[in-house]
């Protein structure tokens, strides 16, 4: 539901926020210059809509209407039954570190998520985390650096190593305490969302669970920021609907992540998955959510990870999530995704390249994207 209201009516906005919360919903306010702004009520509003008459009578409310367009929670442009359309602002997702700094996805600056495929030893996890902190400080972007690491691993073969579970989470906790950097970790089981979510700063839904609807809803109800990978066999619209499952529970803190899709053309072995970079542009244009890219699972080979990062920058991604290794010697000991892990020393060069791109090239692309608004 969209509510149009007169600017300066703070108490009306708060009343609507409170009412929405009673129905397990949240609100997203699009503040506009001029006389009126809009509130978008996020979640399943069918019951809430019975209060439409009450809302219309609140001071300063000018109109209310139900959204009829698809992707009603996450769409950039939402349309009502009479064709009335509201264009919403893109909405940043913020993850705060123990260091007190906010990582703002979709705030116009690249967010660098870096870390192992999975924590295997404390030494390895701390070495990468400390390296990431140091890099961030040296390049003046520590407020844009985050950690990653999967403790619960989805594996194709049941006998493959499947992560350290809560012991791995404890290692990530230690890395956060040591460095102040927040971390994201994958959750596969809806029964573990609360337990893992108590620890992690951000949850990840992996490609294999991108259409695990019960999991999506449980994560949405938990309310922590979430990275939603695109299912490797999913159409972009299926990915958007997956995000709607989370948003429909009132959680809009969703970061979309393109990570490559399976096609016939990857069978030749030159990459692991086909990076669908146009999907980044499309998701940025069609939704209000930040969109990041995973160059590691697209590439499958650390030697082509840097190109993949830079290619995604050209599509104005809001960040990247890259698997790294602290020491070349460890590669043979890494139990999952060793071949695609970028050495931290190489990651430094990638970071420098991204920052140079951001300074010298991105502004021109941003200006062009604005020319093609609604593309
Ligand atoms: C991962 O991030 O380690 C991972 C398993 O990713 P994906 O779900 O994209 O394969
Ligand atoms: Mn991996």
Write the layout of secondary structure elements.
Layout: E1 2-6, H1 10-22, E2 26-30, E3 36-42, H2 52-56, E4 61-65, E5 77-79, E6 85-87, E7 93-96, E8 102-105, E9 111-115, H3 122-138, E10 145-148, H4 166-179, E11 183-186, H5 193-199, E12 202-205, H6 213-222, E13 226-229, H7 236-247, E14 254-258, H8 278-286, E15 291-293, H9 295-299, H10 305-313, E16 319-325, E17 342-343, H11 344-360, H12 362-371
Parallel strand pairs: 9-10, 9-16, 10-11, 11-12, 12-13, 13-14, 14-15, 16-17
Antiparallel strand pairs: 1-3, 1-4, 2-3, 5-6, 7-8
Helix pairs in contact: 3-4, 6-7, 10-11
Bound molecules: phosphoenolpyruvate (PEP) and manganese (II) ion.
Commentary on this structure:
With 375 residues, the chain is an alpha/beta fold. Helices cover 34% and strands 20% of the residues. The chain contains 12 helices and 17 strands. A 9-stranded parallel sheet has the order 15-14-13-12-11-10-9-16-17. It has a 4-stranded antiparallel sheet with strand order 2-3-1-4. Strands 5-6 form a two-stranded antiparallel sheet. Strand 7 and strand 8 form a beta hairpin. Helix 6 (213-222) packs across helix 7. The longest helix has 17 residues, at 122-138. It is globular, with a radius of gyration of 21 Å. The two termini are 25 Å apart. The model has no long low-confidence stretch (mean pLDDT 96). The site of phosphoenolpyruvate has 10 residues, from loops. Phosphoenolpyruvate (PEP) is lined by residues 117, 150, 154, 206-208, 229, 259, 294, 297.
